[in-house]
Amino acid sequence: MDYRDEDLLEEMFEKYADECEDALNIALARIKNVKSAIERAGDDSHIDLLASRIKTFESTKEKCGRRGYDFNMKSIKKNVRDIAGIRIITVFRDEIYSVVEMLHHIPGLNVEDETDYVKCPKQNGYSSYHMHVLVEIYNPIENSTKLIPIEIQIRSQSMHYWASAEHKLKYKNSDADPRVAESFKNLADSLAKSDEIAIQLRDANKDSSN
Fold first, then answer.
1. What is the pLDDT of residues 89-135, one digit of tens each?
2. pTM of the predicted structure, to 2 decimals
3. What is the CATH number of the domain that holds 38?
4. Phi/psi at 77 (5° precision)
5. How far apart are the C-alpha atoms of 204 and 139, rounded to whole Å?
6. How far apart are CA 165 and CA 169, in angstroms?
7. pLDDT per residue as tens digits for the range 63-83
8. I need a labelling partner for 84 at 20 to 30 A (CA). Which of 15, 53, 73, 140 fits?
9. CA-CA distance, 15 to 172, in Å (whole number)?
10. 159 near 128, Cβ under 8 Å?
11. Position 147 in a domain
């Protein structure tokens, strides 16, 4: 790709990223409103941490290359559904599904597809619940609306620790020792067992307080 073509593509990408950020802000506001309403009612929203990010041009370019996607706007809009991303962290593993159920009932978050890596972790040990939702945004200049995709990841604290460590230590090292991958899988298995123990402790505490 000629550098001038890439400059133009980057300019087009930034405009699309702005739309993604608008959709992200709408989704975040709706999730925060529901979270607050649940907690004001004295219930547990199960959301321990809520974070977000917009994928950069360089990160998108890297992902397209890694996945074998064409690097143009048509391909980016079709294949890279996580330009805008929201991450929800729960304390306990089983709370993930309560959050998923809550998200399904929030107006304006139109669930496009979802993948359960909690029940079926990836081979390397990665575990999380992924949802792709479409959020409608309005353009007052064009007097038009469009649906923008957002990826929402819901994971427990232990899953988040594993993903952060794996990303930092291995993700960008294509020449990683195979023993490193095996160690990360073993770590994921250990953390899953820790999650089970934490749930047992929580439930035992509930029973003793009743």
1. 999 999 999 999 999 999 999 999 999 999 999 998 999 999 999 99
2. 0.90
3. 3.30.460.10
4. -65, -30
5. 52
6. 6
7. 999 999 999 999 999 999 999
8. 140
9. 28
10. yes
11. yes
